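[Primary structure, fold]
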Amino acid sequence: MRRSTRTPRPRRKPNGKPGKPRRPNSKPRPRRAPPSATGAAKNWNQSCYCAPKAWRRGTLTSKEAFAHDGPQGVAERIVDLLQRSPVPPGCRTAAQAVYVPEAQQLLVDVELPNHEIVPTVASYRYVAQQTKVIPQPAKQAEIHEAYARLVARLALRALDEAFSGTPATFVENIILNGRVNATDSATGKAVRACVVSVVAERKDFAELVLDEPRLDPQQCLHRLGATISKHPHDLEPVTPIVEADLSHYRIITDTAVVATLDSRPDLLQMNPYDFEGLVRELFEAMGYETWRTQGARDDGVDAVAILTNPIGSSIFAIQAKRSKNAVPVETVRAMVGVMDDKNASYGIVVTTSWFGKASHEFAHRDGRIRLIDGRNLKALLAEHLSIDALIGLPKVPPDWQAGDLV
């Protein structure tokens, strides 16, 4: 088909004079309305909830990272994941992470924007007489509320990304602290305030529907048990959930045990004090800072271990049970009261024997207790202290092999 070469007919103005010819098949351009800061801020704020599906696919392989670089490799992958997140500009400037494989836990520290990121204009009004677009300022209460909701949304977004990027077998819960770097207007000094702190269990977080428009981010965090600043715009800080406080323990000096052991010690033949010292030295070799507590008067706590990382410190209350029988479930349940009384973040029960099904189920439900039976203890001693230990149990425990004792 031949294309027409005819010149388009000129348009006629109201006064009858010809106007400029219209291009073939051209459409009149629509007039743009003045931008609405309120609508833009709403869409921008809503995009902070959860990561798009395309970003989640193939983000990282935590198992490969752990196999090659250990816990540090997993932490580095999470930091890379958080820093590549397609959040709106300025909403996340930095992130840190620490992976604790013993507790199947991830500690995440994200830097949040200060209140200046919230638009101060609520809308725009066009004044025809002045041919001007005049901004209408937002109320301070509205700005403060928008910032508080933004902080909550960004915290949920970071949790969603961290859970999405790690398998359930590696991470069961995440401790997240959100901090704000700013200048205190009253003193002029630089401050780094923690405005939100939360421990989120994977199973609880999986029940949330983050892309539901009616979801209230602040109520959502409260449901997860979070501690949130009531006035984040004023940098009113909250205490991070993970804090190290040794004032609840009676610490005593200790002597080295490993140097005095035979080449193949029988753990059951050791006296209780040497066994407790061996457990303490094991955790020290695993990267913890440890102390032994004062004997039987310390309410079942035989040692204290602190794991320090860039995010903070966690206290582990340790019980060492040198026994040839199964550890009663009551011992494991009592650990919860010990942790609460001593303000410990986690509890660890170490034994030369084994734990029953009820003990494992209770520890799994609580989420803060780790159980190390004799078989795992023997493997840890070989890995971290190069000790090839024996366990002279009179019988082979359930699910064990005879070779696990020698």
Observations:
- Residues 140-164 form the longest helix (25 residues).
